[in-house]
Amino acid sequence: MSIAELQVYSVEEADVTGGVCVVRCIGGVARAGQVYAVGASRMGLRHIERHGRPVGSFDAGHTAKVHFSGAIVALLSRGQVLTSVPPDGHSLEDLEAWLATGPPLRDEPHPRTLRVLAGVRMRDERLPDGIRLRWGRVALAATHRCAAAEGTPELVRAPELACVHSYLIEQFGPGPDGGGDPAALCRDLLALIDLTPAQAAAQGRVWRDLPHHRIRHLRRIKSLIPWLAVLRPHLAEHDPLGSAVDAWVQARALLP
User: How many CA atoms does the CB half-sphere of 86 hold within 13 Å?
Assistant: First the structure.
């Protein structure tokens, strides 16, 4: 994520909640949702206007009227340079506290950027296990935020969530202090599939004759099956979910 810099031309209005400034972008790309540092204080870039119209971003060399949140806006001065704060600039504790407030989806860090960052930290074996597990929970929260921000259907976002859950279970074991409940995750994934293994296999045998949306649907189902297979060894010996997972693993080879 690039770091943007804004230079203040003027503070048009300000109060304890934030204010409106005219700024010039002098580096990177300024986007609605970013957070800017003013010393130890932070301001959220909530809205951008150019030529009287709202825009999502503007780049170096251009000016805009921007709406910031944060009481520090009132203390800004002409010529002051503001620097965006990338996710790497936030500590794990800051991110956990921020997510706990249920922040708006447009707030920085952006959901997908945060998901990538948290996923990298979760897999960093140089970190203590407890820290990696906490990053995994941030990754799960960021994945849910991605789905909400992008309007992603459950069946589409399920593989991303299952990927994180399965990794945590494999690395730290099942349970409330680990990656969660494998059986519950299996049930959730299976509940998203609107076909039986036999029905999916039958459609898979003639998939070239199916309309495009049905082919895409079968592929989405297929993308879930590897995660079911990862969870299979963690199911209880006589759990009927095991038979359901086995049936889907066999059907997968027939899906497009």
Answer: 11
Of the pLDDT bands very low, low, confident and very high (cuts 50, 70, 90), residue 43 is confident
**How would you class 76 by CB atoms within 10 Å of its CB: exposed for 0-12, middle for 13-18, buried for 19 or more?**
buried
Is residue 1 predicted with pLDDT exceeding 50? no
Written as six digits, the tokens of 123 are 């897999």
- Characterize the bridge pairing of strands 29-31 and 18-27: unpaired
Residues forming a β-bridge with 13 = 20
| Cα–Cα distance measured from residue 28 to residue 11, given in angstroms and rounded to the nearest whole number | 22
Distance CA 32, CA 64 (A): 12
Backbone angles phi, psi at 159, to 5 degrees: -60, -35
User: How far apart are the C-alpha atoms of 163 and 146, rounded to whole Å?
Assistant: 15
Q: Are 28 and 3 in contact (CB under 8 A)?
A: yes
Q: What distance in Å separates the CA atoms of residue 119 and residue 168, rounded to the nearest whole number?
A: 11
Number of H helices, E strands in the chain: 8, 9
DSSP state of 175: B
Task: Indicate the pTM of the whole model.
Answer: 0.64
pLDDT over 60 (residue 88): no
Q: State whether residue 1 is helix, strand or coil.
A: coil
C-alpha to C-alpha distance for 231 and 215, rounded to whole angstroms? 26
